[in-house]
Inverse folding.
């Protein structure tokens, strides 16, 4: 089992819809979770991080964490074509210590 | 703004060559990392370093070595390049003093092709 799992997609949503990206992890000791966005040919850029159970909102983005279910998600409201990218989920802590362990990424396509 | 600079954006090398990938960060970060990224496999950690002259193996260290002689510079070395090392290589740095909520800062990546 991979430490961080994501559906590779592509996830296709129409412009203006809510995109829901999901991620599960295997190490219960994981402390923090990060969502990175990566455009084709570019390096990843941090969108959000979350470390407490519940929701964390930042503009059109909401990260959700459920440690009991070992599940973290990213919601993108009012999706725009410019949101089309690969979204990488990562975790830190637990057996990873100060290292980030990444999932394989989910490719999101927002269609006009 | 943190800047992580990788010396080359694109590299083409021949099988058997010794290859150096250089990475420099300007924010006095203690932790530096080398990842490779391949389609369908995501980012996989090759090596990381917590301090000068300190190095630790990541998930896929075989065929690679690293050097950290100065805090700001972390070099990835392919002793004898092989075609299966054709990949995108990403360097990153991180400040552990900010705890588990610190973001990882990435360089722009080096796309290495081994022929």
């Amino acid at each position: 089992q991979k430490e961080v799992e994501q559906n590779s997609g592509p996830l296709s949503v129409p412009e203006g819809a809510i995109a829901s990206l999901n991620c599960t992890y295997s190490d219960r000791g994981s402390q923090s979770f990060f969502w990175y966005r990566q455009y084709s040919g570019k390096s990843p850029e941090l969108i959000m991080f979350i470390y407490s159970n519940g929701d964390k909102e930042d503009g059109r983005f909401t990260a959700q964490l459920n440690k009991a279910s070992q599940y973290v998600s990213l919601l993108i409201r009012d999706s725009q074509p410019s949101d089309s990218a690969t979204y990488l989920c990562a975790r830190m802590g637990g057996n990873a210590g100060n290292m980030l362990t990444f999932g394989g990424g989910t490719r999101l396509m927002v269609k006009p | 703004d943190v800047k992580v600079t990788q010396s080359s954006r694109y590299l083409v090398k021949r099988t058997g060559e010794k290859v150096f990938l250089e990475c420099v960060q300007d924010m006095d970060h203690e932790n530096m990392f080398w990842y490779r990224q391949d389609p369908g496999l995501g980012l996989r950690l090759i090596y990381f370093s917590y301090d000068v002259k300190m190095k630790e193996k990541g998930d896929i260290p075989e065929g690679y070595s690293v050097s950290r002689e100065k805090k700001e510079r972390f070099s990835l070395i392919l002793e004898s390049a092989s075609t299966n090392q054709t990949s995108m290589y990403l360097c990153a740095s991180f400040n552990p003093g900010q705890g588990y909520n610190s973001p990882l800062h990435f360089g722009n990546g080096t796309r290495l092709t081994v022929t």
Summary: The first strand of chain A starts at residue 4 and ends at 5. Chain A has a mean pLDDT of 92.
